Sequence to fold (188 residues):
Amino acid sequence: MKSVLVTGYRAHELGIFDQKHKGIPYIKRAIEARLVPLIEEEGLEWVLTPGQYGVDLWACEAVIGLKARYPHLKLSIIAAYLNPEEKWKEDKQTYYREILGGVDYYATVSHQPYNGVWQLTARDDLLMRKTDGIILFYDEENGEASPKFMKRRAFQKRDEDGYRCIVITAEDVQNIADEELRDMPFDA
Fold:
């Protein structure tokens, strides 16, 4: 696999409203745990993401961190429309701009501000055409949320032409958190 799309829940869909949430490091570790074997065993070169606030940007952070060990690894954000962050709160805009500093390639599918769902559909089509597979943070038990559309499309593409689908669930993230707590010294 040379390129992978990483996406999933928006932060608010997980009940996360700021960057201090204790679950974010575990989500990033779960993403890293899926990326490292692809890098080491399959020669992964590119990680692409839509760059929305939540799993997309946490995946960017994970990739930026992995670049120290894997300097050949490249990161791209392909946004649906111009200035997707402009209506976000100031702290989220600052965070987004910091992430952009670690991105190797940034583009928008539409060169205008948001004006319809077609921009999101066009972005998703492009991301799936440009990647060999997807790492999707999605959990059936978490109810209906935005990643369900991407999951449906990815699994359809898998059935049609072998697109690789790797799903991270809430249980996977919880297992990472539990493992870290088990390994913590009692006096910590």
